[in-house]
Every structure is written in structure tokens, then in C-alpha cells.
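Fig. S4 source data, part A: sequence.
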Amino acid sequence: MSLALREMLMHGEFLPGQKLVEAALAERLGVSRMPVRRALAVLERDGLVTNLPNRGSYVARFTVRQVNDARELRGSLEGLAARLVAERGLAPATQLALEEMLEQGDRLFAAGMISPSVAEAYRRLNFRFHTEIVTASESRPLIMAYEANNRLPLASPLAIAVDLSNLASLSHTLGETQADHHRIVAALKAGQGSRAEALMREHAQTAIDAFLKYAERLDQLDARTLPGLRLVIG
């Protein structure tokens, strides 16, 4: 139930600050009020819902600064994960998975100009790439913190700022992202922990900078590639 309600929130079916009425949600989802109440409690823990005593539950509001904080934290966690993987040794299975992802990304860019379908495919590939490295760290506290942070709007590697009105710029941005991935994997393979961490942090900062370019015109971004976009206020 919490997953279904989370999807509704992240895809903009409710506005920031809107009151979430248990009875109405239960009727809409075809369930009793109790599972809705439990779902709201989970979403409050995740930061997507705010509960005000004696007033009820409301959709949380997020600022651009809060989005950047979450993205910066993600970069720190991914950087630590990359350092751990490099220093402890890149497992053959992880190396193979990452190299296959690099090849898939290269094939996507081989045709030249990026299309909306290619951008969508690369968005999902980007998520797999980052998740693979974090999982390979085998650090349970790190993985738990990473998954919790990813539940915030626009924090996940799935959230790539896509401006379909300027495909030339998009091609450049995603091309730089792919080049970063190659450098990160090279550092992991070489066992260069500090370099791998620095590259991953720099990679995250590039994503933040790309998002900030559009921060003043959020309504022009493709909400399909940015789950939680409608929860962010300028």
C-alpha cells in the first residue's frame, strides 16, 4: 500500500502541501482506512508526508536546496562505496556487470544525437550502474542509508534532468556522464580507492550542476524522468 501511495506522490497526483484524507485515499485505492494509515506512517518516516498534530497528513514540500543536499549526500555515499570496492578488490562478477553496462552505454551513443527513447534507456542504465557499485561495497549501513536517501524526490540515480527541447545539450550532458562512468570503472579496476571516491563525488557534482541549470524553470523538465519533480517548489 505504501508503494502505491508513494508512486502517486512521486508522479505528481498530489500537490505540495495538499492534505491527504484517509477516507478519500481508502476509497480511491479500494482498501480500508487502516492500510492507508500505515502507508502514511511509512511515507512520513521517508520524508514524503508531514503529519501535523490534530490536523492530519499533508504532502511534504521540497526546495531546490533540499534536493541538492540529497544529491550531495548521494554523491558522498557513492564515493565511499567506490573507495571500499576499489580498496577491497573489485569482484570479477561486479567487474563484468560494470563492463557490460559501459558497453551498453557506448552502443546507445554510437548513433550520434540522443533521442527521447535513448535518454530513457540511459536513465535506467545509469541507475543500474550506480546501484551496482553501492551494492558491491557490501556495507549494510551504507546501503541502507543510500536506499533511504534515494526515496527522496530527485535524489535517485534515476532522476536525470532531461530537457527534450534541447537534444544537442542533452547529448553532451549524457556523453559526459558516460565518460565519467568509464573513468570510475578504470579506477575501480586499478584498485585506486581515493581516485575512485573523488571521481564519484565529482560525478555527483556534475549532476547537481546540470539540475541547477533548470532550477528556475522546473515546469519545463520532463517529469517522467524526474519522479518527485512536482513535489519541489522553486
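Fig. S4 source data, part B ends here. The mean pLDDT is 89.
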